[in-house]
Write the structure tokens for this entry.
Amino acid sequence: MKSGLQTTVQDLGRYGFREFGVSPSGAMDSYSLQMGNLLVGNDLGEAALEAPFIGPFLMALHDVSIAICGGNLTPKINGQEVPLWKSIVIKKGQILSFGELKEGVRTYISIAGGIDVPFVLNSKSTYITGKFGGVEGRALIEGDILFGNPFTRRNRFLHTQLIPKYTNKLTVRVIVGPHTRKFTSAGIKTFLNEEYSITSQSNRMGYQLTGPKIEHSCTADIISDAIPLGAIQVPASGQPIILMAEHQTTGGYSRIGTVISGDIPRLAQAQPGTKVRFKEISLQTAQDLLIDSISRLKSIYRLTR
């Protein structure tokens, strides 16, 4: 009925096609997406709706369970506020709407039975820059119909320990490198000890930060090479850029570090103006944290089947 600011269909992303210049895309906050799917009984990687800042107005064509996770955009059904992080039933003809942004940035609407859009390169994710995936490669517009295979599953909710808290100050863990020789020792010290702010010039492609200048030892440019999710580029301005879900596949700016996978969801919910500090950890520690989080997620999933 109303599209919201930029509501798109997203799953866990499109992998295996970077050599062709295809971004992974996918949910900015993969944790909220997976928790929503768990609550409504879907596979963890099923597509959901991602809505940043201003949510859509949606009318149910069938009785169906939904779960709303992530940022709190004050969801309501027929004008009555409903909880996040819980499966609820929206009945045929009822309207799901959103209002004031209270916390976080992006809300995820998981629908029991999933969203029936074509797989493009093994994913349902919308890649807006490439104009494919999701619904015709674009954000939702008034009149779109998202057919699925609806069913209802009531009153599933998450333990409070599993619900993240979104704040205006973040410490994100990073693996330093690979282009440390491109920076002076003072530049690396600045990166790891100073505070930066997320600017309004931030989107699904990347977050531009502002703060103390990070000093290069020579030119900021490199021969273009592959870029992972969470890579932190530092152009000649000395202001870092954190690359997010819809990042380009290669780049020619020197990279001072990479945000670990487990901290990307918290970054995805950070509003403009959020203060960010970087904390160095080892590759081994990052891998251990990732293995542990995957193990816990699988355990929760098995318990709910």
Remarks:
- The longest strand covers residues 64-72.
- The radius of gyration is 20 Å.
- The first helix runs from residue 30 to 40.
